[in-house]
Amino acid sequence: MKLTTYLLVICLGILSGCTNYMYQGQLSASDAYGQERQFILYWPKTEQLLGTTNAGPAILLTECSTTRIDFSDQPQGIIFRGEQGMDRLPGSDAAVSDDQVCGKFLSYDKLADVPPGDLALQVDCEPIPDDFAAFPRDYLKARAEPYVFPVVEETRHWSLFGETPPAPVLYCREFSGQ
Amino acid sequence: MPVNPRLPRKVLVVHGVQTGTDNDLNQDKLISELIKSRIGNLPLHYECALYRYENINDAAQSKFKSLIKLLVANPIGQAVGKEVLDVVGDVVISLANGSTADAIRAGLKQAILDIYEAGNPCYIVAHSLGTIYAFDVLNQLISDGEYFDRSSRKTWPVQGLLTIGSPIGLQMFKITGRDKITNLGPGEKWFRWLNIWDHNDPVVSGNIFGQYLSGFKIAEDFRNDDPAQGWVIRDIPTDTGKAWLMAHTAYWHSPVVGDKLTDMISS
Fold it and tell me: What CA–CA distances, in Å, run from A107 to A40, A119, A122, B99?
């Protein structure tokens, strides 16, 4: 009975064992309104003992903002897809059409392939103000020059059925001490 | 009363298939904790509530009680039979457009309208089978014609929909009428539907062995080119880090879900 249990656990481990990673990078730059802000980019990745490697999406946190844009694997690469009514190209009055590429990881096509190290990404859009919003939509300022995030592998943990690794949180310096 | 964007955002959680009773459910607390863990020190005012319908399901399943008794009259049945039948019963009820499903939908609609009457912006988070009820009721509210003036979000009883681990892409739901969404009509505002799913979630794929899903559209299949549709729909495949069936219940603790929800209820 004990042997059977051990064999069962080993089989389950082979089928379901995972290594969970959390990647993250942080930088300071101008936001869409010209304010100097901190930005954190993070994404989870899971390698299964048997099976494929999953990753993403990559989430961009903006200091003092509740906006969380995501970069995900799409046919055009790892991109931030603009949303109708929410994003536009700088200098344009009109919102982007759905699925317009508003940002992109340079040099990589799949999030699962992005290693630790410097990661260049580009942002091409800006948020559209909306009176209904609790906080103004905000993210990295659109510019032709790419931003470079120094990405590190923050977590690496093996487990039988997988775990959800903790993600970084960004605190707003304007509200600190309140 | 029109929706007041200055009032606290209300997150109405619609649970999925369950065992047990309404008293066992705490998904609203899980979502509240998840948002709290993701907003840092930002003063975002929100409240979470749970739409409970498991007791309605269980009452409808009472006619199966004698069958359950028969099935659980052995050690294996005692271990799993009752819970499996509870879950299977929930799915069968949602597929049938019978009085029980109608009662669940009517209760959800009323819960949404109560929030609307109070003036709070309402956002729905629905999990698993709950996404089917949320989908039905949302489309019903748009079809009613009384709400959802596309030029003013203050007339919208629901401001955004976040579905997690939804089986809505499965054929069994398509053939029971969930093959299109209701157009909002002409206007400049957009209704957001974010559909988050784990690559390995067996409920999303309909494959008990957790078939890997990639390059796959589920909610985005509901898009069309009609400018009057008025929905911004996004599939967000995500890595919860969990394997197989655990992936289906991992969303409640996923920072990606928490972040996208934070984004939605703030916008």
Answer: 19, 8, 11, 55
pLDDT in tens, chain B (267 residues): 799 999 999 999 999 876 667 777 899 999 999 999 999 999 999 999 999 987 786 665 555 455 445 544 555 445 444 444 445 545 655 666 668 889 999 999 999 999 999 999 999 999 999 999 999 999 999 999 999 999 999 999 999 999 999 999 988 888 888 999 999 999 999 999 999 999 889 889 887 666 666 667 899 999 998 989 999 999 999 999 998 788 999 999 999 999 999 999 999
**Residues 6-45, chain A, touching B (beta carbon < 8 A):** 15-16, 18, 20, 42-45
Q: What is the ipTM of this complex?
A: 0.93
Q: Which of B4, B162, B256 should one mutate to test binding to chain A, selecting the residue with the greatest count of A CBs within 10 A?
A: B256
Of A46, A75, A175, which has the smallest distance from its Cβ to B42's Cβ? A175
This model's pTM is above 0.80: yes
Longest CA span, chain B: 61
Q: Which chain A residue lies closest to B156 (C-alpha atoms)?
A: A132
Sketch the domain layout of chain B as residue ranges. 9-266
Return the structure tokens found at A112. Answer: 């699962």
User: Which one of A16, A93, A96, A164 makes the best mutation probe of the B interface by having the most chain B beta carbons within 10 Å?
Assistant: A164
Polymer length in residues for chain A: 178
Question: Does residue B212 sit at the A interface (CB-CB below 8 Å)?
Answer: yes
Tell me how far apart the alpha carbons of residues A69 and A81 are, in angstroms, rounded to a whole number: 9
Q: Is B9-266 CATH 1.10.357.10?
A: no
What tokens does A163 get? Answer: 């775990």
